Amino acid sequence: MLESLVFESRHHNDWARVDLTGQLRMRAFPALCIAPVIAHLEASGIISAMREDGIARVLHAADFEQHGQSLAIGAELVVRHRLSLHISRSDPQGYPDARGQTRILWHTRYRIDTVPPGTPGTRKPVASATTLHVLTRPHAERTARAVTTVPPALAHLRLSPWTGRLPKPDMLGLPVEADRAFDDVWGVANTDIKGHVNGTDYLI
Question: What is the pTM of this model?
């Protein structure tokens, strides 16, 4: 049984991945980090097996961090992916509670490095990220949607306790008036297949 699934993916930087300072844009992280994990598990049949069991992954939280490294167009990027499974029992505020709701969490950590030209054995850190998905059965009856045991397709990964608080909006430290700052209405053209509304690029 594995503590975590670890592998690397390789990419080349292009103009769409970086901002005017040469640093990775926030919207570049999902393609560099999340997409290779899904592709890796799809290639081994894990995603298909989960889908057949009616289980999907819902993104609960993501944390993307740049390290101030400017990237040239065409620079080689190496992403190290580490996926682990956790069980969380928490109250409505996300704090650990043995009597609270049980969830199976899909926790992935990423390190993005660049390989300077002419130095194949050298890497420079560019960025890091973490994502947290909750496993669920979206098409089941409401009382049966929670996934409380490890799916058979992921049985080769050890299940560890999630000992911290589940991420919640109040942990972002946003000002009180932030929830009133957005009064535009976004239509169907700004949504995706999961119902997310994508209307704004955030400047970090």
Answer: 0.82
